Amino acid sequence: MMDGAAGLGLTFLLALVSATVFLVLRCQRLGRPFGPSSRWLALLVIVLTAVATTAVALLVTGVSDKLHALVGVVAPSGLWLGYMRQRQDGRRSLAQEILTFWLASLLERLHQTMAEDREIWCEGRIDDSWTVHELSMAAEHYHERIRQRMSVEERRKERVQARLQAIERRLDVATLIEDSVGRSKVIAALGGSAVTNKVRYQRYLNDFGRLHGVLVHDAERELSRLLDSAYRCGLRSLPRYDPAVLDLTRARSHP
């Protein structure tokens, strides 16, 4: 039998490991709990969970050290299991509220900082200075690499192909505007796809310059959503598209 201090120390260490595992499980498909903006909050959540778990073990004095260890491993599971039940039921049980109310604000803030990290990552892979052609090439570049690395089920769930098509349809119309084709061709192109056949675009038929800007802006947002899907699915090593590098590679392959 270990003395009380050693037993509680072991419980605390087990709770730290358990809390880390269950926090990572909780954050799957949400983001990185240990990203640049979120790591300190994640560590705080883990430590506070371990402290609370050790306090619970301290309250059950007189029981075996094995039960203390069991508490250290099992109690932090509320970080994940409670979250999964909430997602399935759409509500929080009273027991869950009692168990995690003191961590609720920290966990909510952690989710926010993970979203901030995800947004920064996505924005870093889109350049506002790209031409319509370069934006289109970037979408194809990212789509191809995402398609290769995602499972069939992930691609279906994240609507990877549909997002690429939505980008292309918008940029097709933007290209027609840049080429100064007739008004009738632009209107026909807008009406040729459910993506562009919307009041949002039709209201700018008397201002093609504004319409062009809105189409490009929406295409960039759709590309950001595609990258968001990649980030949440763990493809965070996806390199940034660089038109200059691609042009150099093509020049070398076609001397």
TrEMBL record:
Key words of the record: Coiled coil, Membrane, Transmembrane, Transmembrane helix
Keyword Transmembrane applies: yes
Source organism phylogeny: Bacteria, Bacillati, Actinomycetota, Actinomycetes, Streptosporangiales
Coiled-coil spans in chain: 143-177
Membrane-spanning residues: 6-28, 40-61, 67-84
The protein, known as: Uncharacterized protein
Organism per entry: Sphaerisporangium corydalis
